[in-house]
Amino acid sequence: MNRIPRVVRLPALAWACLCATPAHAWAQATTALVSQFRGEVKVLKAPEGTELPVKVGLRLVEPDRVDVARGSRVVLLFSNGRLITATTPMTIAPVGGEGAAEVYARAERALAAAGQATRPDAKSGVGRPPPAGAYPLSPASGSAVVEERPAFAWQPQEGAETYLLQLRPTAGGAPLRFQVTGTGPWALPDTVAPLVRGAEYAWTVVALPGGRSAGEERFRVLDAAGLADLDALHASLREAGVDPEGDGLFLVAMLSADLGLFHDALAALEKLTAATSEAGRDPSVDLLHALVLERLGRVEEARAAFDRAERPVG
Q1: pLDDT confidence of residue 274
Q2: Global confidence as pTM
Q3: Quick check: 19 and 119 in contact, CB under 8 A?
Q4: Residue 116 lies in a domain
Q5: Could you tell me the residue range of the domain that residue 164 belongs to?
Q6: What digits encode the pLDDT tens for the residues 187-242?
Q7: 241 Cβ contact list (under 8 Å, min separation 6)
Q8: Is 82 domain-assigned?
Q9: 294 and 272 in contact (C-beta within 8 Å)?
Q10: What angle do CA 220, 265, 307 make, to 5 degrees?
């Protein structure tokens, strides 16, 4: 899987040293990440007091100041995992109380990975379109799923109505075979045992009668530790009154990407992109979008997302 190593050049207002700063150093220096904002919000960067437009994904450091106009709000994730919705001006400083610190750490790791990615070349072979005929689409290779009875979707074969889906544990064991109609989503039925948390599986699909397998996709079921972190994020969102389908979309996308839940991360990023303008997004958001698309084999869309991240501000 060859690539042309052209690193995305971030605009001046992007995160300084995004590619060069290790995640552990960020954890020491970073105080808060902007998850979402509504209305008129400005950022005054310390110590000069330089005014910057607020953006989803912007990283704030003590003692930056956030000016929130009346009727506006900004949602911030602090480094101790606390979620704060500010509706009045505030100076960034550590906040008390307990939060899901691992959520913040995973968010930083996801953005560090996105910042270190390179723009895939159109002829590099990164991704694929699927070959002709029936082909597994979701879950895609390298991704994870939350459910122990996941849903499967595949590319149809012209003229076919029935398919044979095979699922096997890659560590060994008898495969499961199902005759299904349509192209999904089709969920693993209650007539078989649920999949094992932390285990990897491979699946194929062929058209009946007489179809041939065009390849298999390998995925894993989210382990208990990852599931606990995902639950912690949703608990934090509920406690803070933040809607995971609204102001919490960026947080859901970052955590999902770090957990390998690339399909979930993509769904969140697509909703976030539709709800915010390019001017309202830090380049890190589009870099994360590009990374997730590339991991799912959607190379042309990944290139477009890299281009958005590279586009000059203004």
Answers
A1: 94
A2: 0.84
A3: no
A4: yes
A5: 147-221
A6: 999 999 999 999 999 999 999 988 888 889 999 999 999 999 999 999 989 988 99
A7: 85
A8: yes
A9: no
A10: 125
